[in-house]
TrEMBL record:
PANTHER family named among the record's database cross-references: NON-HAEM DIOXYGENASE N-TERMINAL DOMAIN-CONTAINING PROTEIN
Protein name: Fe2OG dioxygenase domain-containing protein
The keyword Nucleus is annotated on this UniProt entry: yes
Protein family according to the UniProt entry: Belongs to the GINS2/PSF2 family.
Length: 566
């Protein structure tokens, strides 16, 4: 949970993965953090904290025990997306042993730590320090991380896989000559967290099945996790800081770990261990800790016992469970005040995620428009910054540097994030003008069987710009009205065209459709043509002949699909 790396899926330095979510009671909520440099706006911390829903280990290990009520309370649509397991045998000792090794790893000689780095995996194996960025855009030197797969030292020897998935497939790196006990402690705690996570996953499967949708279309969460070869553990160490450094951070609620939503299946985490001068101490600031953004957009502090194992739902599980299990955005606030000076903190997270070649079945009832909108956010737009900022180096490309009043091209998601923080204005695309849209609308009406060329994501791009940069669009009201009219005309063409399909149709060619229109048509078109092929197959005809000459009247074999706007 406390990472901006591949194990949580951001755009800045790690492997990106899909994720999304608007507020909805029984449907998937698809929220994601796009980059460590630009994140969700913070809110002041609430005066009180919320305790996680806790399940005793004795109950968890009974596979037949009904824990659906607790699962729904903690991980369901109205929960916090986190649950804790108490009284796990051996956990307190394993936690303490590993977390006390974190400062020793950070204290290794610099030349040794350099040997423990793995740039080829984007620093997703071995030691990593100062490679990620804070929300301010500065390199994060406050904490160091040690990444490893606690289950498999060598997930694969396939060179093609090592090249394609270096963040998951590369071998572990251990300081065998300088700190050999790290490997033992790391693997012991990681394996225990996986075992308990599998128990929790089996109860999550039962909870999902009770809602009458099956278990992830036949692929259970427990099965997905158990056969994966790319689980990742992360040992984190937060260096001691001075009071002056804390004041520079401004007391942000996300001062230690920026807002993000885990992208994997399930994340296990321990309570942090605080030390000063090598002595364990309680957390010096009651406001510090894990914060979660709730369904009603409140930010609450969440607590669980130091001897409890906590688990958070990732976006992959949320999507596959059709929103019955929900992931939530979260961050970590650092302690502040004079009492927090020279305090160091250690913690451990275990990221359980699908195998790199796992085929995930996307639930058919999840609204397509949410997925299409996510893809559309990668469209390039032009912004005019009002700040000076260094270049952002991301997997999808390098953007910037940025200078005041000098236009720059960036992905739409980055433009929206900067706009929300008041750091830029957004220039509407050339096609989003009254004159251009009027021409398109007239041409659409005059050509009942043709679609005019428009950007593939014109619906999603315009929606995002109207939602977040309306004041930057000239004649915004008229532009919005024209786009809605164009969309209505085109949707009507799609509906009318589908009504002309017949049993002799073997292929359909539709030019200049947008992403939203394609995703509305595609599933219905495929099912319709499959039905025609099945009806006209020789085997089906032979079966009909064998039943005699009696014919069955068919009044209407045309498709019945209401393609009204959603």
């Amino acid at each position: 949970m406390e990472t901006a790396g591949s194990v949580v899926g951001t755009r800045s330095t790690r492997t990106p993965t899909p994720a999304r979510r608007p507020e909805r009671s029984r449907a998937p909520n698809l929220v994601r953090c796009r980059a460590g440099a630009v994140a969700m706006q913070s809110q002041p911390p609430p005066p009180s904290s919320v305790r996680t829903v806790a399940i005793p280990f004795a109950d968890l290990k009974e596979r037949g025990k009904d824990l659906s009520g607790r699962i729904e309370e903690g991980l369901g649509p109205n929960g916090l997306g986190i649950i804790s397991i108490s009284d796990v045998p051996g956990f307190p000792a394993l936690r303490r042993t590993l977390l006390r090794l974190a400062p020793r790893v950070a204290s290794l000689p610099e030349d040794v730590k350099e040997q423990l780095e793995d740039p080829d995996s984007r620093y997703n194996f071995g030691w990593s320090h100062g490679k990620e960025k804070l929300e301010s855009g500065k390199l994060d030197t406050f904490k160091g991380s040690y990444y490893a797969n606690p289950i498999l030292d060598v997930p694969t020897t396939d060179d093609a896989l090592l090249s394609r998935y270096p963040s998951y497939c590369r071998p572990n790196i251990w300081p065998a000559d300088h700190l050999p006990e790290l490997e033992i402690a790391f693997k012991a705690l990681g394996k225990l967290m996986l075992e308990v996570g599998l128990m929790l996953a089996s109860h999550c499967d039962l909870y999902v099945m009770q809602h009458g949708v099956g278990t992830f279309d036949g692929e259970s969460l427990e099965q997905t996790i158990s056969r994966s070869r790319c689980h990742k553990g992360r040992l984190l160490y937060y260096f001691p800081r001075q009071f002056s450094t804390q004041k520079e951070e401004g007391g942000s609620v996300s001062s230690w770990c920026g807002w993000h939503t885990d992208h994997g299946s399930l994340t296990g985490l321990t309570c942090g261990l605080f030390m000063r001068n090598s002595e364990e101490i309680p957390c010096p600031d009651s406001a510090a800790g894990l914060y979660i953004r709730t369904r009603d957009n409140r930010v609450v502090k969440v607590t669980f016992g130091e001897d409890e194992l906590a688990y958070q739902i990732g976006e992959t599980t949320e999507i596959l469970s059709r929103g019955r299990l929900c992931a939530t955005p979260h961050c970590v606030q650092a302690p502040s005040g004079e009492n927090a000076s020279n305090v160091e903190r250690s913690t451990f997270a275990m990221f359980m995620q699908p195998d790199w070649n796992e085929t995930l079945k996307f639930p058919s009832e999840i609204p397509y428009h949410q997925e299409v909108e996510f893809v559309a956010e990668d469209e390039i737009v032009e912004i005019v910054p009002n700040i000076r900022m260094e270049a952002l180096n991301m997997i999808c490309g390098d953007f910037g540097p940025f200078f005041p009043q000098i236009a720059s091209k960036v992905p739409l998601w980055l433009a929206v994030a900067l706009k929300r923080r008041g750091k830029c204005t957004v220039r509407a695309p050339e096609w989003m003008t009254v004159d251009r849209l009027t021409q398109v609308l007239d041409a659409e009406r005059e050509s009942p069987r043709e679609f005019q060329p428009l950007p593939f994501h014109y619906i999603e791009v315009s929606k995002l710009l109207f939602d977040h940069a309306r004041d930057d669009i000239s004649d915004a009201y008229l532009v919005r009205s024209l786009i809605e009219d164009i969309r209505d005309v085109r949707f009507h063409k799609v509906e009318s065209g589908l009504e002309t399909l017949s049993g002799r149709t073997h292929a359909v060619k539709l030019k200049n459709l947008s992403a939203m229109e394609v995703n509305i048509v595609r599933p219905f078109m495929v099912r319709t043509l499959q039905a025609f092929y099945k009806h006209d197959s020789p085997q089906m005809i032979q079966q009909a002949d064998n039943t005699g000459s009696r014919s069955t009247p068919v009044t209407d074999r045309g498709p019945r699909r209401d393609l009204r706007r959603r």
